[in-house]
Amino acid sequence: MELFILAFFALGYLVLGGADIGVGMLLPYLGRSSEERREVIAAIAPFFLGNEVWLVASAGVLAGFFPSAEGGLLAGNYAVIVALLVSWVARDMGLWLRGRLPGARWRLGCDAVTVVGSWGLALSWGVLLGHVLLGIEGPLALLPALAVTALFGTHGLSFAALRLRGGLRRRAAVLSGGSGEVRTYALTAAALVAVGLLAGLRLSPVPGTAAATLAPVVLALIPLLVGSQAWVWWTFRHRVTGPSYL
């Protein structure tokens, strides 16, 4: 049961959070002007904070249920974890602060921070997953990291194609064959789930003494999380029509 809970949150983050990471990575390609980039950001704006809840929940479950696995995961990966956290904060800062002050330079700077933070997130997850899956360290760790980063980017493109309209949608659908964004999104989501499952099998966490006590509490909270996430997705289910949100 504890492994199911961890897999549920971790895989949910990879699929949902991976989409907004990918969109942030490719923001300069998707949006050629400040106005276009604002519209692209609107495609992920209602979702990215909710998606991060899945990551926070995954970290909490890992620390509470599998403390030994948490220690093993952090050992030797401190630099990657720090890079991941800094990138996470930078990406969110760029998204939140973009519209707080007027001026083209300010918006361009925030867009740059968003892109760099998104690439940092993707590469950090790639290095971490590559280390867990293959045990690769050093310069060679960049190879699986780049593969995972490309997967995030493709996933983000398919999500953007599902959310945008007109020329922005056509730009995002470059890998989806025009109208195949649903198929591409499903394939990239399945690939991220496969990577996450393989990493979980390699990690082989052993539940701690508190797992049996905490599991019923977490199970009771899961319907609330899923329900709130479903409500957000239903509310913002339509394609983006302009630079709204945030």
Q: If you had to describe this structure to a student in words, what would you say it looks like?
A:
The protein is an all-alpha fold and 246 residues long. Helix content is 78%, strand content 0%. α1 (2-25) runs antiparallel to α4 (48-65), α4 runs antiparallel to α11 and α7 packs across α8. The protein is globular and about 55 Å long. It starts with a helix and ends in an 11-residue tail after the last helix.
Major beta sheet summary: none
Oligomer: single chain
Structural class based on helices, strands and sheet pairing: mainly alpha
What Rg, in angstroms, do the CA atoms define? 18 Å
Strand portion, in percent? under 5%
- Helix content range: over 70%
Uncertain parts: none
Helical region count? 11
What would you call the shape?
A: globular
Strands, total number: 0
Mean pLDDT: 88
Helix/strand order:
HHHHHHHHHHH
Distance between the termini: 38 Å
Characterize this entry briefly:
This protein has 246 residues and is mainly alpha-helical.
Question: Topology, please?
Answer:
Layout: H1 2-25, H2 27-30, H3 34-44, H4 48-65, H5 67-74, H6 78-97, H7 104-134, H8 142-163, H9 166-172, H10 181-203, H11 211-235
